[in-house]
Every structure is written in structure tokens, then in C-alpha cells.
Amino acid sequence: MLNAIGFCSFVLASGVDRSSCIRAADEVISATPSNLQEPATTSRSYKRHLAQHLCGVSESMTALELGIYHGHTTAVLASMFKKVIAVDLKQEFLKKAADTLGKLERKVVFLEMDLFVDGWSLFAGNRVDVVVIDANHGYEYVRADAENALRYLPHLKHLVFHDTWTDEVERAVTELESAGMMSCQNIGLGADGKEYDHRVWDPRTNRTWFVKQTRPEGKVCENRHTQISGKAIAPNFWEKLFLLYKQPVTTLGMCSAGFFRFEANGVLKAGNWSEGTWKMSNVSHDMLLIRLPKMSPRPMEIHFNVDRSAFLLTQMGHTHADWFGILDQMVQRPFHLAAILSRNQDGIELALDAGTYLVTLSIRAIGNTPLASCSTFSLNLLLIQHKMLPVCPWASSSSDQSAAAEAQRSASDHIGNVLKRLVPKKISKEVEEQPPVTLWMSQGMSKFVDLTVDSMAAVRIDVSVQPPFLPLEVELRRKRQVGKLEAAVATAEWTEHRLLLMYNDLPPGEYQVNFLQSREYMAFSNQAKEDLSELCAHLTISAEVGISSKDAVNSMRSELLDLPDLLAVQPLPPSMNMVGWITGSTTEAVGTQVYRFSDNVHTSQLTLEEKAILRVVSEPADLSNADILVSLEQNGRSISESDRLGQLVAEIDKGSYVLKLKPKAEAPFLVTLAAAYETRIRSDLALIDAGSCADVLPDLAAGVDFTANAWTIGPTFVRLRSSYLTQQGALMKVPISLAVSSVVYLEVGSALPLDLVRIALQVPEGLWVGEQRGFRNSLEIELPAGKYTIEIGQPKPSHLVEDIQRCLDFSVYVRCMPVNPALADSSSQGQNPSNELATQDEAAVQTASCFSMGTVALPLDFSNEKGGSASLGGPLDKDGRLLIRSNVLLTDMHDGRKKVFLATGNHALQLKTAVILGGYSRFSLASQVAFTVTDTRDSSMTTQTETWTMEDGWERIYNLNPNSEYWLSWHHTHRERSESACLHFGLMLEVHPISDLPRMMACPGSTMNPEDMFPPSLDATSTEAFKYSKPLASLVQAQLGFLTKTRISLSRPAWVGIEVGFNYFISHAEMDVVPAQDPQTSHPLVLSVMEPANGRENMMNAKLIAGAVLPPGDYLIRVADDHYKDQIKTSRACFPFSFDVNIVYSGSRPKVLSVNPLASVPLVRGVDVVLTLRFSESPKGSIEDVVSQISFAGSVATTGGSVEHFQSRFASASRTKTIVQASVSEGQKLWVLAWSSQVLADKSLTSAQLEIGPIRSTPSRARALG
What we know:
Blueprint: H1 18-31, H2 44-54, E1 62-66, H3 72-80, E2 83-88, H4 91-101, E3 108-112, H5 115-118, H6 121-124, E4 130-133, H7 139-152, E5 158-162, H8 167-178, E6 182-187, E7 196-202, E8 207-213, E9 218-223, H9 230-233, E10 241-246, E11 258-262, E12 267-269, E13 275-280, E14 287-291, E15 300-304, E16 310-315, E17 321-327, E18 350-351, H10 403-410, E19 432-433, E20 437-442, E21 447-453, E22 457-466, E23 473-478, E24 490-491, E25 493-495, E26 498-506, E27 509-516, E28 522-523, H11 526-532, E29 536-547, H12 550-556, E30 569-570, E31 588-596, E32 602-608, E33 612-620, E34 628-634, E35 637-641, E36 648-652, E37 655-663, E38 668-677, H13 678-686, E39 711-720, E40 729-738, E41 742-750, E42 758-763, E43 766-769, E44 771-773, E45 776-783, E46 786-794, E47 808-818, H14 822-825, H15 839-846, E48 856-857, E49 882-890, E50 897-903, E51 909-916, E52 930-935, E53 946-950, E54 953-960, E55 965-971, E56 983-993, H16 996-1000, H17 1010-1013, E57 1017-1018, E58 1025-1037, E59 1042-1050, E60 1054-1062, E61 1068-1075, E62 1086-1087, E63 1089-1092, ...
Parallel strand pairs: 1-2, 1-4, 2-3, 4-5, 18-28, 30-31, 48-49, 57-59
Antiparallel strand pairs: 5-9, 6-9, 7-8, 10-11, 10-17, 11-12, 12-13, 13-14, 14-15, 15-16, 16-17, 19-29, 20-29, 21-27, 22-26, 22-29, 23-24, 23-27, 25-26, 31-38, 32-37, 33-36, 33-38, 34-35, 34-37, 39-47, 40-46, 41-45, 41-47, 42-43, 42-46, 44-45, 49-56, 50-55, 51-54, 51-56, 52-55, 53-54, 58-66, 59-65, ...
Protein name: C2 domain-containing protein
Organism: Cladocopium goreaui
Pfam families: Methyltransf_24
């Protein structure tokens, strides 16, 4: 089995030589055994008929073969087709087939899989033209294979069947042909209708015999491309008897608890539970919604397997399945699909008997975010023998007599006060390391520990679980008013046997550390359940809590360095005269190494035989610790000292010296050491021509087209006259311009140790300086569109060998590449955007470290117009106000960090920022982006005034002092070196003078209460479509805010869309939808996402948006607002809100349900436009057909190639080189289209219109979408 398989798209070629194809196939066929020699293979007649039918078109096609045995038919297919995907359940057949193919193996991709179990989604995005079905010959299997091929392969032209002489294969083919799905011709033996001798082989006994046969050996069928709907093509579960079993079960042979029969008219016959109803779900083709009152008062969901021969039965909205059903004729088969043991979206815990099992992992999109073509996830898999698990101290069989065991044994909950000293009562500036706490814990046990924080704190909780079999969860929660919707502040992540929870900037407040086990092991016998209750794991819990500071954060990072393995961390060498450094008069040494410093001062000895020059350049591996002092001493006397950033140059005579490095904090530094003797330098300079030095600085920007998305300067070699050798500071400045968000690489090379030339990016508050790596000084940084200045200079010139006439020599190279790699193709390369991507281009896009469609790089400065924030809505205006609402990204550069400068001027400011990480990951969302506000004067961290945690991110408030300067730092921590720091997220950042707050919360003449805006119930049962709208109004609130619950009842499946408008700066609004029957304990069925709304001057500048298709039932729309402590200082405060509910029942007139982002939000030039469209019904036609009817700013989409997770690529029909991309999900109802920034490049364009032409829905609703 191949572990990594790549699939490509194949394009049809024309003018194919059919005769040469047939000759090549005949050559292979003649070398294959006949079915008389090897009865399990196809006949030579069958193979020749295949060649005659398909040669002439097959050379540019891809064939998928199901069931390959020894690969003889595979070899023939490989001689005919451009590519063959060969699939078999047995690995030995795949290996044998590979041996059979010989040189033809290069055209074949082998896959070990069972399509009856694994599904066809693997092939859905690949072009497959022909499918050869010769796997399991059972009726259910053949029909499932054929139906899935017709459903999932849009380019399918032919289906080929073998062994159609058998009753079950013939039945499946005949049914599909009769339904009009395909038209077939006979091939192989019996194709002419004459009788022939067919050799039958029994693989169990290896016996063979001959039978007279008139049915044909096989059929080749043409796909009629009939719409896949109704009973004709839907997997046939109608009128079938499914036996129902209560989980857990020990064997499939036990008595069933009842049966289900799905009648064609929507009636569910259920035996002991009488009758009910069933409907197909709009969410998935493999889901039914059922009502069976005598089994459950609530609606339930049925989740089928691929061929719908088995299903799980769950409560609506839940993942745990108490029941499963299976076709009656399959019950006695030892087939693993029948034993669906567990299904859960977080994980499974099972106590299993010896045997063979299948674990299936599947990924589903959450909300409106489409899945990427390559999704990653964290997997922890534990298999441990039952007898290896230790018994609990309180178990009857325990012999543990220790004091700790006795303490737990005597406690009523078997935990007692063990965790009492887990966290300190009073936190201090230094991280306090409490002694580890140890205890025994069995499944089902839980414990809650209170934590009080009175200043911004850093928390780390490390739990070692041995053996790690418990489904333990550790979370940190803020204590809030009961009923509020806030999520956990942080959750621990499993890594092997450890659970690690880290949070670096916890604001003051009351918290609770929860040790939970929300799931239990599913045991398949009463005895197994009893045994599990007495089995334990041993926990060792280490907790560190301290006042959050730069030092505390560094000590708590799980990894401090993300550098190539070539730069391994080492101690400073004791001597600089070691091999590889200064060992002789002809030696010149230049090297860069990472050194870790654990003590105050580190020293290295240096002995020189003659006069020499020494240069040291130091850069912090951890950006928060930039200070280091480097000094050179002789006999206790200081010879030379560096600046505080560790840059030193010294010209020293013969003798012995001590090099001292003293960092401010214990952290690794990247140190470049360069040294050379004067005689070596003079001999090198004698070989260089010094007569061609330039008197004038070159214009490096001349001839560069800065309007292009991608451009370069150099590489250029610069030689300047000798007067520049002693010029300290800036040598030259180069203005540059970026058309779109880009990654800019800056590099200069100079002749260390004699000369050091440095390159930097100029920003209002100073310079972003390049890092030294040997002879190269370079900087790579992501920047938004804007104008910038590059500075090239000498920080510390050398005065050695001034008597020699020479030039100042250095090289310069600057490269600008769009963060979105697709834009590079259309910049200035002269490529035709309507062409498919070449193989190397496709590979470059797929392996790009960051795919950034629709995102903007964070700028360098929020308070100055030259800092790059203009494209995001900046800079801070003269009154101290700023509003940024954009999708931004962090890249792998600088370990996933980005710092932005903010100066407050004369104003005391309040800053509110939010990070929205929807769709990125479910693990520790709140801590995936660490954010700090640091005072530049003393590097102290600013304490948060308030923090709120949501399911998909967080919001924070900071108060900033007047006449102060701050660094706003975003950091995406990543725990593995191979893990990318690239992260996209939504950023909301608003700044106001604190004096604005009373005015913003003042009540106008007309106000209302929250209950008036959000009524107790809405009657949505009587109409085809329901709409409720409450326009903008001021809601009177108290300090505690509000929580309202609006009940809605759905009589049939419907799309429910909800929008809550509010002012982001003064409100923390939340909204979700929960089942009305159990609102307190149920997980939300629908979560809201915060979106920008309206222009920056509008008081309602944000909306919470939620939408989903819900089955019939009763639901609650919960809306809440919360405020930070003492926000409301008067008896009366008001907050703007609006409320809109849009319900469209399934089967009503098709329409466009929503377009995001909202049209009221201004678009920014230089930023890609990503739009999400949701239709109430699936549009009819291919992706190209639908997208061709959608235009934006005059750009109409036509077909193209593919990029990253977008399924198709489109180029503008009306504008040159405009790239449009599209992705489709949720049964073709959710469409994501992205236009490149070039759509808005026209400076005269003040507004852009989205136009949707006539699009028809699927045949079930033969109307045009409104």
C-alpha cells in the first residue's frame, strides 16, 4: 500500500492514433495468460474488446480499476490509458500486480482500500473517465460501486463490468440500464450471443470446472449523464428490512431489539415502536431525519454508511449512537461494517475483545468555511492490554498501603483534598513552581479547583497520565454569571501521555481549573464495565502560576527556537582557537551559531599571534529578549564593548584575550563571530582591483516596475569609493512600493570581518534590521500594500588597513513576492491566465507555506501613515481613533510573530481587539494567537482590562496611557519544528479616547428594553418563508448586560439565518441556537460568527451572523451582551442593536439566502475579494455553468486551473489577467468565490456591483434562483 498518493487533473488530447493503441494493447494481451490457464483473470477476448471500444480516446484518459487480482487486465489498461488507478482490498494482490506490470508500473497508482467502507470522496476531485468494476460480485457491492462512480465522478464516460454472466452482477447492471443511467454493449466471451465453455473457479477449495454459458462475460456501458435523483439511482434502502440493535453488543448473532422498514411514501415501519415518518436530510445525502414518538419524543438522525447497508441512530444534534441498524441479509456475514462500535466527533474510547477492527477518520466543514483539499489534524491513538492497566487503590484487589493511596481510598469522591495545593493562594512576579501533585483517577471522576488572579498572570498546567487511557480534559474557565455563553479560556492538548495547558496573559478575575471526563469507555459486556470501574491511571500534575512578564512567558514556552537543524543550540566554546576558528596566521573565520546562555556571563578565550580584527554580531533567537552585552578584555581591562544589542568590532594586537557575552535574560542568541589576521586581509586585498570604485551611489530602484505584484532588485554588486569606508550609519535609501500584500526579502552581502554592511526597512519608529548569517545580512517580512523605504548602512566601520586603497564592496538583492502565490502568475510574466497551471506552477502553489487569498499582512505601525496600515483602515487619526476590520495572516517568519507599533499621542486611549479563528482548528482556539501589549520604554506588559473567550476566538480590552508608545504583538505558537506558523484570522481592532465612552453609551430620546428587541417567541410555522426585522434601536442596559431567549418552531426542514447588529467597541455580544427542550446542557446547534458591518462612521459597525439548515422542531435563539467591570458609571446607559431572522422552508421558491461579507463594508484596494454565497437550493449545472453567471465589478468568470483547496480556477472574460477562484460545499448550496485584487485595481472605481445572472435550481425545483 502506498502511504502518499498524488492525483492530478488530466486534459483530453486530440488526434490520437487508434491503431497504435490497439497494437500496444495486443502486445500486452498476447503475454497475459488466458482465463483457461488462470480462471480468475479476464479472457483475452474481453481484453481485446476493451481495446477496440476505448482506443482512440483512452490515451488522454484516466481509468479506475476496482479489483485487480494479479494485474493482467491492469497491464492492458496501462498500455491504453494515460493513467490507471488500481484499487484492491488485498495488499498481496497489489504487490503481485506491481510485479506483473514491469515498465508499465510507472503509469499506475496502487491503492489498498475497500470502497464499500472508505467511500469515494478520495476520487471526487480527480478526473476519472473510465471505471472497470471487477471486485466483489455481490449485488449490493456491484450496485454501490456503479452508483458511486456515477455520483462522484463528473467526467465519467464509460463503466466496464466483468462476470456479467452471474445473476447478481447482471441484476445490478440491468437495473441501472433500465433506469436510463447508461447504455451497454456486450464484450468478451459470449458477446456474439453464442454458447461457450466458461471455466468456474472456487477460491475456497481451489477447484475448477466448466459450465455452458450464453450470457456475455462483460459489458462496456456509456454514461448517459442522467440527473442522479430518486429511486433510479439513489442507494436502495427503500422497502428493505433493517434489524435494530442496542449498543453495546457482544456479537452480531444476538437477538435484535426490533426492525425498521423505510416505505417509499415516507412512512417508517418500526415493529415494537409502531410507525413513524422519515425524510431525507438537506445536510447530507447519507442522513435521514425520523420521528418515532414511541421510541423518542425528539426528532432523531440516521447516519448511513456509504452503500446504506448499515446505519447509526442518534438523537438530533448529538454524536453518540445508542442504536445501530443493519440489513437483515447481512447480519450473519462476518463483515466489519455491521459492527459500528462508536462514532464521535472528538474521540472514541472502547474496551474491545481480540479481533480485527477498522478505524475511520473523516473531516467535515464547520460553519461557512470550506474544507481545504489537504486538511491536517492531531491524532492520539492508544492500544493497551486490559491486564496492563493498574487497579485503583480503592479497588478490592488493591494492595497499595501508602499514605497517599489511603487518603484517596477514604475520601468519598476518592480525590478529597489532594488538589488543594495545586495552585498558589497568592501569585508573585516570579513564576511559582509548586511541588507536583500526584493522585489516582478512574474514568468518570472529575474535580474543580478555584483560581483567583489579581494581576495579569501566566499559567501552565502539565498533567502526565500513566497509562494515558483516561479521556481526561483539562480546561480553564472564567467564572461568569450563570447562563452567559462564554467558552473555556484555554484547554489542554494531548501529546502522547501529557496534557499541556498554557496561557500567557490571563487577566485578573475568578477562574476555575476543571479536570473533566465528559466521555466514558464503551464496554461490550457487563463484566467489562465492572472491570473498568476499578482501573486507574496515575496523574502527576505540575502547575506554574505567576505574574505575566517577559521572563515568565519565556520560561513557559514549550519550545524556544525554530531554526534549521544545522543551527543546533550549543554552549559557547571555551576557546576561539579551536579547529574551525583561529588556528593560524592564514586563517579567516566567519560563522554563525546558536548559543544558549544559562548563567549571567559566558566567556571564551582568544589568543592571537599578530594583529587582527574581531567582529561580533548578536541577534536574539527569542524576540522578547533583545539585549546582550559583548565585551573583549585583556588582563581584566576592557578593550572594547558592544552596544546593548551585542554588536562589537575590535582591532587588537598580539596577545591573549577573554571574550565575554552577558545576555539580559536566559535565552538563546544567534551569534556571528568573524575574525582574521591583518596579514591575511592585506594579502586578500592585494588581489582585488581597487580602480573601479563608484563616486556616486547607484539608483537601485531605477527600471523596477513597482506596479507589478512581483518584482526584484538585483542581485547587484556595488563598489563605492574609499571615503564611504569610514561613513557610519546610513549609506543609501531605496524607496519601494508594494501593490498587494507581499513577502519582501532584503539582503546585502559584505566582506566580514573587515566590513559589515546592514540592510533594514525604515519605519517611523526606527528600523527593522536584517539578521546576520555569515557574510549575509538579510530580513524577510510580510507587509501590506503601501510605500516603504529600504536603508543600507554601516553600523560599525573598521579602521584597519586604512593605508591600502580599496573600495567598499557589497551586494544587494531585494525580492517582492505576493503572499498569495496565485497573484505572481498574473503580475508581469506574460502568462495567459486562462491556461491550466503547468506542473511546476501547480506544485509551487500547493507547497506554498501560506495561502493568503483575501487576507492582508499586518503592518509595521498603526499610528503613522508610513507604517503600512492604510490598506487596513489606519492610521490612528489626530483625535486618537482607529478602526481595523480585516482578515490578516501570520507567516512562518520570525517564529510566527508580528509586532506593530502604536503611539498614543496626547490621548488616554482604550483599545479593543478581537481575533476570530473560525474554521481553523478545534484545539485551544483561544490560545492559538497569543497577543500582548508592551510598553516600549520599560518592556512591561500592559494588563488587560477585560477578556472574553468565544468558541472561535477572543476579545480583549486594554487601557493605554497618554504620551506613550506600545508594541502590539501577535504570535502563533507552534509546538513542532515541522509545524507551520502560518495562520489566517479575522482581526477587529478599534481605538477611542476614553473620553468618547460616555458619549457612545448615552441614551437618545427613543429607547427600548432588550426584551422588546428580542421577543420571547416568533411564529414561523404558517408561511413558505418567514422574515422578522427589528431595525437599529438603543437598548437600555445595566452593568450585567442581558441574556434573551427567542423561541422558534419549524414545521419542516428550513434554512434559518440570524443577524444581530451592534457596536463592537462598547458591546460584547454573543448569539447561538440551541434545542428548546434542553437549552442549559445542550451544545449549540448553530454558532454565530462576528462580521464587520457598515462604514467606519456608522454606530452599528459589527454583526453576529448565524445560519444553518435545521430539521423540524423547537429552538431557542440566545442573544447576550456583557460589559467589563465598571464600564457603566451612570444609572442609565444605552447600546445600539438590531435583530433580523430569515427562515426559508425547504421546497419554497429558490433564492440567494446570503452574501458575505456584508455589502455595507467598504472594500480595500490591493486586497483580494472573497465572497460567500448561500443558495436555498443547489444550482443546476457544473461549477463553470454557475460561476459564468456571476460577475463582480465587471469581471465574469470562465473555466481555468486549480489552486490550493479551491476546486476550480477562473479567469475574467472582460478584464485582462483577473483571477477568480471558486469552492463549493454543502451539497452545492454554499459557494465561495474569490477575485484577485486586480479586480479593484481601477482607481476610478468607487463601487463594485455583484451581479448574479439567471441560475436554475436542480430539477427538484425547476425554477430560476431569485
